[in-house]
Design goal:
The complex is a heterotrimer of chains A (about 260), B (about 270) and C (about 220).
Chain A (H helix, E strand, L loop, with lengths): L3 H19 L5 H16 L7 H13 L5 H24 L10 H33 L5 H16 L4 H26 L2 H38 L1 H25 L9
Chain B lengths: L1 H7 L4 H17 L10 H11 L6 E7 L5 H17 L3 E6 L5 H14 L8 E6 L4 H9 L1 H4 L26 E6 L3 H13 L3 E5 L4 H9 L5 E4 H11 L5 H33 L1
Chain C lengths: L6 H14 L7 H37 L3 H4 L2 H11 L10 H32 L10 H24 L8 H44 L4
The chains are: A mainly alpha (about 260), B alpha/beta (about 270), C mainly alpha (about 220).
Chain lengths: ~260, ~270, ~220
């Protein structure tokens, strides 16, 4: 009973929605609307799942004075202050805490909640810069392609990028020529010739690359986004969607039951 | 020389943090500005809203929170300006509870600047859980999901809502997206009810939305701070997004130089080995 | 310099700097800020649940609806109650009924949304003419090439992620083409991600320099 009924509920609701897509008339269309309405009500309660463990875990830390208990005390305190402030606004001032004149929105939300959340995520700017510096290496053809696409998009999507990009790419080609030349000087025979050709090609490419980027970088970035990038993303998302549909079918048919644990 | 190159590939992370912080702070402090021409997809979004007759209803969905506020808040404000300037009616709702008040604050703020009246020119519906279920039922009747606005006022008591029942009465839906809610708007409001959609998105998810643009499932796409700054320029009101674009340029160049430096260090070390 | 005298702006600035202090090293100010954020988010959800769900949909529904529309609300009310049973261990199993309902709905909506709203229109949009007549020969070549690239890129990216068949022979060749397109897409995504992250920092720095210190 503890497993069969939930599996049955999942099956019925899932199948009904699929039928309603193809037969949107009575009774399926109407049932779908009713079920949607119920989901709107029940769905809200999923937001608070895990609340008990969050509070209990932190309460335990405070009680046992475990490491970090001060932060836990702040967590519990901020939980109750927010709760009382929000509901208090309704009970005492008789207005929704989300009213533009509500102190909850004007002070707590604007000056406590928003700065905390916004700053926490702004730290990612530093991490991505550091990670790019540390991990982004042009080791082979694919990673060089990735790196070049990234650089073209990063510069092609910002103002003045078109003026800066030619110099950066020209410098890279110059470095490449130097690298080939140095490597070539350590080898002999065909390999040496190949390295020297590489160095020569790099130098010869400097002017055309400089010219093209100076005049067309923004267009190139547009093209990357709209053609090859778009095509690959479409392919990836078609694959993900097929996976999503298969997973949903497994759930509806009761093959996948992990959500009942 | 080689030693120097090796060191170049091994700068302490805190030095990098400081460089990035200073680059952003100094460009803002010295009010450096660069001009750019709006991206085609942003211009198209602007033109679509611009072509709507006065009195048309535009629905905004706030699907982001403070974690992506710097990108989407200026976008929202610029678009609201455009709507109010064109005397369009605005309905606002959202699917990200933690961020929905940001939309409301911006709406009240811009409406005040244009002397717009609540209930007549704009309405804030608020939030309902259920995502796709909300989107589907809005297609039948808005009142089945929101019988009242956020204050508890019945929708029929609000003059501008009297003739607005479902997507048929909404000219454009503008989804401001930091996650996957935009996909759902496309999959449910557009695919089932043919609702015209413009998506404004954080730069992280913008590349994923291009397939929708190419397929015509969305009519416009405004991506990231660049998109926001383009829209600010289009409505002739450069604000925080436009001010931030110079920092964006400087830091992008810096990051590319850092990647280059990292690679020089890497190849110098590899050659050494 | 036009420094703010609003104490709330100072609170926001202090919290902003506390969170940023993590960049130097993990410390008590960051930890406290982080915990305040988590605690208040949880409470925020509860407030939302009441004001935007339980009150308008259930309480007002029971008060103002009539007839069947009123009594049918007993079902979602019960399911919501079952969801809360998760907090009471001996009867926690009953919450599975409510979870089963939300999972069933999610799966059903997932299938229909992806099928109708993604797969069909996206596949349809890939059926592109491989020759496009432009205003001149160069334009015709450019537009046709774009369409060809879009078709090849989409198909080869799908093949790259097709793991049910070993990647040898022609499949390997196609998937190699796929990886080329995917690398360009990942590069573009990386570029855009950098853009997004920097924007977030710009927002906070602007707050410190403008709203707090009044320097700009």
């Amino acid at each position: 009973m503890k497993r069969e009924i939930p599996l049955f509920i999942t099956f019925i609701t899932g199948v009904l929605l699929v039928i309603a897509l193809f037969v949107p008339h009575k009774p399926f269309g109407q049932l779908q609307q009713t079920f949607n309405d119920w989901l709107i009500i029940v769905g809200g309660f999923t937001m608070i799942l895990g609340l008990d463990s969050l509070l209990l875990h932190n309460w335990e830390k405070i009680k046992r004075k475990k490491e970090g208990w001060i932060s836990s005390a702040f967590l519990i305190a901020s939980f109750f202050i927010t709760l009382f402030w929000g509901f208090g606004e309704g009970a005492i001032a008789h207005r929704s805490p989300f009213d533009p004149s509500a102190t909850f929105l004007r002070y707590f939300y604007t000056y406590v909640f928003v700065p905390l959340q916004a700053t926490m995520f702004s730290l990612l700017a530093f991490f991505i810069a550091s990670a790019a510096y540390r991990a982004f290496r042009a080791k082979d053809g694919n990673s060089t392609l990735l790196l070049s696409a990234a650089a073209l998009v990063m510069l092609g999507r910002v103002p003045a990028g078109q003026e800066v990009a030619p110099w950066i790419f020209a410098f890279v080609l110059l470095l490449l020529a130097y690298y080939f030349f140095k490597e070539g000087s350590k080898t002999t025979g065909t390999q040496k010739t190949l390295y020297l050709i590489g160095a020569l090609v790099s130098i010869l490419l400097i002017y055309p690359v400089f010219y093209i980027l100076l005049h067309y970088l923004n267009g190139i970035a547009d093209w990357i986004m709209n053609i090859p990038q778009m095509a690959a993303k479409r392919g990836i998302w078609i694959g993900i969607s097929l996976g999503g549909i298969a997973m949903s079918l497994r759930i509806i048919l009761g093959v996948e039951k992990t959500y009942l644990q | 020389m080689r030693d120097f190159l090796r060191k170049a590939g091994n700068i302490d992370r805190r030095v990098i943090y400081l460089i990035i912080f200073l680059a952003v702070a100094l460009t803002i402090l010295f009010k450096i500005r660069f001009k750019s021409t709006p991206l085609p997809e942003v211009k198209r979004s602007y033109e679509i809203i611009n072509s709507l007759p006065a009195g048309s209803v535009v629905m905004f969905s706030i699907d982001y929170d403070a974690s992506s506020m710097p990108e989407l808040d200026p976008m929202l404000r610029a678009m609201l300006r455009h709507c109010f300037e064109k005397n369009l009616k605005v309905i606002m709702l959202g699917h990200w509870p933690l961020g929905l008040p940001l939309g409301q604050i911006a709406l009240e703020d811009v409406a005040r600047q244009y002397h717009k009246k609540y209930g007549v020119d704009y309405v804030f519906l608020g939030y309902r859980p259920g995502l796709q279920a909300v989107m589907l039922n809005l297609g039948k009747e808005i009142r089945s999901v929101f019988s009242t606005d956020y204050r508890g006022t019945p929708l029929d008591s609000l003059p501008m809502m009297r003739g607005v029942h479902n997507y048929n009465d909404i000219a454009i839906l503008v989804g401001l997206e930091a996650g996957s809610v935009g996909d759902m708007w496309v999959q449910f409001a557009n695919a089932r009810f043919n609702q015209k959609i413009i998506l404004g998105s954080t730069a992280v998810i913008t590349p994923d939305l291009y397939p929708y643009l190419q397929a015509g499932q969305i009519v416009g796409l405004i991506g990231g701070l660049r998109g926001a700054s383009d829209y600010e320029e289009l409505v002739n009101h450069p604000a925080i997004a436009s001010a931030g674009m110079a920092s964006q340029t400087v830091v992008h160049v810096l990051i590319i130089l850092l990647i280059l430096l990292g690679n020089i260090g890497y190849f110098a070390t590899r050659r050494g080995k | 310099m036009n420094i703010s005298f609003n104490p709330w702006v100072w609170v926001a600035a202090f919290l902003t700097l506390s969170m940023m202090s993590f960049l130097y090293k993990d410390n008590i100010f960051y930890k406290i800020g982080e915990h305040i954020y988590v605690g208040s988010s949880a409470a925020f959800m509860l407030i939302y649940l009441w004001y935007f769900d339980v009150k308008p949909k259930l309480v007002d529904g029971f008060m103002y609806n009539t007839g069947i529309n009123k009594w049918i609300l007993i079902i979602p009310a019960l399911l919501s109650l079952f969801m809360l049973m998760r907090f009471i261990r001996p009867v926690a199993w009953i919450s599975r009924w409510a979870i089963a309902f939300t999972v069933g709905m999610g799966s059903g909506l997932g299938i229909t949304g992806l099928l109708q709203g993604f797969l069909v229109p996206q596949i349809k949009a890939t059926f592109l003419p491989l020759y496009v007549h432009g205003s001149n020969t160069l334009m015709s070549i450019y537009l046709s090439l774009n369409n060809i690239l879009m078709v090849i890129g989409t198909l080869s990216a799908i093949v790259y992620f097709y793991f049910s068949k070993e990647h040898t022979g022609p499949v390997k060749k196609i998937s190699q083409v796929g990886i080329t397109f995917i690398m360009v897409a990942f590069g573009a995504s990386f570029g855009y991600t950098v853009m997004a992250r920097i924007s977030l920092l710009i927002g906070r720095v602007y707050f410190l320099l403008h709203n707090w210190l009044g320097l700009v």
